[in-house]
């Protein structure tokens, strides 16, 4: 086994996802900001994470809360400005914390100047940067559905008398990566953030940027085309051309670990890929054993480095899904003891559950508000936030389970996560070791991680 120092940082790392809107508000508008993240850097360093991944903080009309980007190289005023971004990256590095930012390549906002230009005239410079199809206003070009509306993935653009494609909201038109000008522009976006000093990218909808777009009534759902792999190789070359082990982690939202493995290429595509089937598995020993085995079978032989994730901004938190604090704690140990790179979702280290969202406070078209509740930092009425009224309701643990209370309780989730990460860091077996299955009671999972045996059980 190579020495730890010979490995890229992202293999031994624990990466912590921050949803900026929900982390900490410092200017009193009820929405978290980059300054709020900066102020919590000492907390993050003490927690023991190695890197933060920031969900989008770019200029956006917020139809999809930032995943509808109107300017890829500027910060939305809600979150601060570019100087705040530079300062955050610099000070994170001073704390030994790397910074990974979200790259949203599949679509832009309909308010992006590229799209505004594209729809302005048939001869517009950006006309072919999006996917337009002629036809009849009554018949969408194929049966693809938009992810959040339940309606067609196509919108008829009246002034142009043409359809445009949007796999997500109508406010998120898909760009056309078959166009080399799009590729060049998106590469410039990557260079901008690499030059600013970020350590890598989480790539949104990575698997679908290069898609075939068959027309007609009987076409399959969108599928990755060979072009996606070529585009991933180009991005890999660009990212690797920078010094300092920059990395990419792709949101490969496919429920097959074998398909996920393909996105590592021959070690020349993504550095890391999310593998979501375990996130959707019930917290039962047999189901998880199967998921772990699938990773060992599909990723190990091709030298692809696994990732593990229990919670994120698109799904109910794992404590909510599993239904108990004990299971959430057992799952934390499992996550932090598996070979591969774990991703934590901010607030997971506090054992937060989803907030209950009354109908009048629902804001997300995709029904994901509960897991995006603000993080309660202390026991004051505003829980450390500058304004008393954040954009979403507090999670149920806010009154007694806020971060400050957990600091003082050695048995809290916060201390459990800290201890688990300290142990993980100290033992290569807990992040790099292979393991073998040991016999155990049926409701019990037990793996031998090399010199250290870890066991997690739940029933
Ligand atoms: C995946 C992101 O995680 C999700 O939040 C977003 O809505 C879609 N991609 C569209 O960008």
Structure keywords:
three-stranded antiparallel sheet; globular; eight-stranded parallel sheet; 459 residues; disordered C terminus; alpha/beta; 14 helices; binds 1-deoxynojirimycin
Brief characterization of the structure:
By secondary structure, the chain is an alpha/beta fold. It contains 14 helices and 16 strands. The chain is globular and about 65 Å long.
Small-molecule binders here are: 1-deoxynojirimycin
Task: Characterize the biggest β-sheet.
Answer: 8 strands, parallel
Which range best describes the helical content: under 10%, 10-25%, 25-40%, 40-55%, 55-70% or over 70%? Answer: 25-40%
Distance between the termini: 35 Å
The secondary structure category is alpha/beta
Helix and strand pattern: HEHHEEEHEHEEEHEHEHEHHEHHEHHEEE
DSSP summary: helix tally: 14
What is the 3D shape? globular
Low-confidence stretches: 449-459
Number of strands: 16
Q: What value does the Rg take, in angstroms? A: 22 Å
How much strand content do the residues show?
5-15%
pLDDT average, as an integer?
Answer: 94
Strand order of the largest sheet: 11-10-9-5-2-1-13-12
Describe it for me?
The protein is of the alpha/beta class and 459 residues long. Helix content is 28%, strand content 13%. The protein contains 14 helices and 16 strands. The strands form 4 sheets. An 8-stranded parallel beta sheet has the order 11-10-9-5-2-1-13-12. A 3-stranded antiparallel beta sheet has the order 6-8-7, with no helix packed on it. A 3-stranded antiparallel beta sheet has the order 14-15-16, covered by helices on one side. The protein is globular, with a radius of gyration of 22 Å. The two termini are 35 Å apart. The relative contact order is 0.11. Residues 449-459 have low confidence and may be disordered. 1-deoxynojirimycin binds at residues 64, 67, 104, 168, 204-205, 251, 313-314, 366.
């Amino acid at each position: 086994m190579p020495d730890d120092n010979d490995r890229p940082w992202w293999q031994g790392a624990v990466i912590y996802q921050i949803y900026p809107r929900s982390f900490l508000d410092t200017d009193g508008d009820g929405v978290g900001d980059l300054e709020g993240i900066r102020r919590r850097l000492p907390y993050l360093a003490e927690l023991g994470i190695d890197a933060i991944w920031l969900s989008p903080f770019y200029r956006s009309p917020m139809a999809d809360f930032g995943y509808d980007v109107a300017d890829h190289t500027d910060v939305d005023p809600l979150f601060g400005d570019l100087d705040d971004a530079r300062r955050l990256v610099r000070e994170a590095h001073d704390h030994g914390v790397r910074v990974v930012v979200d790259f949203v390549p599949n679509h832009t906002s309909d308010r992006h100047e590229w799209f505004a230009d594209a729809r302005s005239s048939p001869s517009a410079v950006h006309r072919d940067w999006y996917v337009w199809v002629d036809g009849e206003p009554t018949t969408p070009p194929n049966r693809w559905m938009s992810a959040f509306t339940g309606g067609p993935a196509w919108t008829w653009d009246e002034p142009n008398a043409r359809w445009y494609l949007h796999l997500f909201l109508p406010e998120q038109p898909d760009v056309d990566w078959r166009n080399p000008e799009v590729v060049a522009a998106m590469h410039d976006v990557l260079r901008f953030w690499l030059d600013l000093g970020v350590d890598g990218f989480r790539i949104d909808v990575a698997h679908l940027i290069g898609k075939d777009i068959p027309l007609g009534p009987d076409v399959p759902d969108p599928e990755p085309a060979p072009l996606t792999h070529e585009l991933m190789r180009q991005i890999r070359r660009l990212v690797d051309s920078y010094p300092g082990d920059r990395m990419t982690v792709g949101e490969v939202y496919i429920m097959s670990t074998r398909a996920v493995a393909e996105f590592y290429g021959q070690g020349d595509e993504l550095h890391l890929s999310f593998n979501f089937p375990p996130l959707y598995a019930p917290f039962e020993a047999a189901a998880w054993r199967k998921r772990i085995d699938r990773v060992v079978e599909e990723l190990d032989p091709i030298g692809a480095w696994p990732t593990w994730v229990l919670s994120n901004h698109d799904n109910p938190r794992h404590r909510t899904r599993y239904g108990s604090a004990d299971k959430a704690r057992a799952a934390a140990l499992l996550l932090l003891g598996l070979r591969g790179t774990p991703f934590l979702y901010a607030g997971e280290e506090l054992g937060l559950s989803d907030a209950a969202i009354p109908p009048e406070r629902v804001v997300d078209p995709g029904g994901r508000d509960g897991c995006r509740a603000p993080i309660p930092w202390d026991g004051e009425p505003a829980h450390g936030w500058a304004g008393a009224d954040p954009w979403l309701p507090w999670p149920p643990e806010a009154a007694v389970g806020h971060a400050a209370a957990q600091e003082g309780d050695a048995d809290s989730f916060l201390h459990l996560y800290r201890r688990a990460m300290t142990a993980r860091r100290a033992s290569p077996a807990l992040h790099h070791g292979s393991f073998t299955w040991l016999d155990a009671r049926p409701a019990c999972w037990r793996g031998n991680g090399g010199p250290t045996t870890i066991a997690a059980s739940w029933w």
